[in-house]
Amino acid sequence: MAKSTYLEAGRRAVMEEMQRDDAVWALGEDLGRGGVFGQYKGLQEMFGAGRIADTPISEACIMGAAVGAAMTGTRPIVEMRFSDFALCAVDELVNQAAKARFMFGGQMRVPLVVREPVGMWRSSAAQHSQSLESWYTHIPGLVVVAPATAADNLGLLKASIRCDDPVVYMEHKNLWSMEGEVPEGEHVVPLGKAAIAREGRDVTIVTWSGMRHGCITAAETLEGEGIEAEVIDLRTLWPWDRETVFASVEKTGRLLVVHEAVAVSGFGAEIAASVAEALHFRLKAPVARLGAPRIPIAYAPTMEDEARVTPDKIVAALRRTMQPEPVS
């Protein structure tokens, strides 16, 4: 194992897949100078401008070109810079890429990866801070991935590039500099498989992306009170790992779903409903959700913090979930 940042792990994944497969290439704004966050640094010098391609400032143009290129046999990596900007390219992704396999009777695949940096990054304000994963989990034909660690950013990005269906790949901006241990050899993490980030017996926390780390902090806080929380990092939101989640909730009898995105219509509602429908007879407490309020994310740090899902808020939600069962 070696130490790597989350950002560098993603860069390594792109480099290794481009070395492995000549059909892999990347396109987007500012890639020649390394990308807006530096996640493509040095790759144009290594592979040339034909495979690390700079584009005009037009998300619709970028996505449309990538969809056509994927349909004709290449594997594009589409850099959208911010998930907020990708909304300009939703038609090409949702109405073309996601539906082509179905509409052509399985004769055509669209193997592309759309990298969409997500989440709150200090004072990035309402148009650069959103977590929009539930928009994409709603669309048949799309795979949705949200890595939380450096090792997973390496392994999941490699798996996504090899996938024959379009993948929306959501990297959290606040994790770029986070370091972690990463395997030195070939490392591919299967899509659709969750990770148990922390084992516990009393309550299950299901989360993904940057919230993995806040949930672990909250679980460690409650350990001092004798409460052992199990933390599950979904890693892939669609398809999500129902087997791992259900097995954990069957063990603990309690579930809290935590995500940074707005709670209203968030993907946590899908998990909560699925567990409540399947395991209602095993639950010791009502299923609970914790997400952001339905407000735009402010530039001012004090107002921005009102929208944050913090470890303290997670601890408070867990304590409510752990209240004694009502007498029937």
From TrEMBL:
<dbReference type="InterPro" id="IPR029061">
    <property type="entry name" value="THDP-binding"/>
</dbReference>
<dbReference type="Pfam" id="PF02780">
    <property type="entry name" value="Transketolase_C"/>
</dbReference>
<feature type="domain" description="Transketolase-like pyrimidine-binding">
    <location>
        <begin position="4"/>
        <end position="177"/>
    </location>
</feature>
<keyword id="KW-0560">Oxidoreductase</keyword>
<keyword id="KW-0786">Thiamine pyrophosphate</keyword>
<dbReference type="InterPro" id="IPR005475">
    <property type="entry name" value="Transketolase-like_Pyr-bd"/>
</dbReference>
<protein>
    <submittedName>
        <fullName>Alpha-ketoacid dehydrogenase subunit beta</fullName>
    </submittedName>
</protein>
<dbReference type="InterPro" id="IPR009014">
    <property type="entry name" value="Transketo_C/PFOR_II"/>
</dbReference>
<dbReference type="Pfam" id="PF02779">
    <property type="entry name" value="Transket_pyr"/>
</dbReference>
<dbReference type="InterPro" id="IPR033248">
    <property type="entry name" value="Transketolase_C"/>
</dbReference>
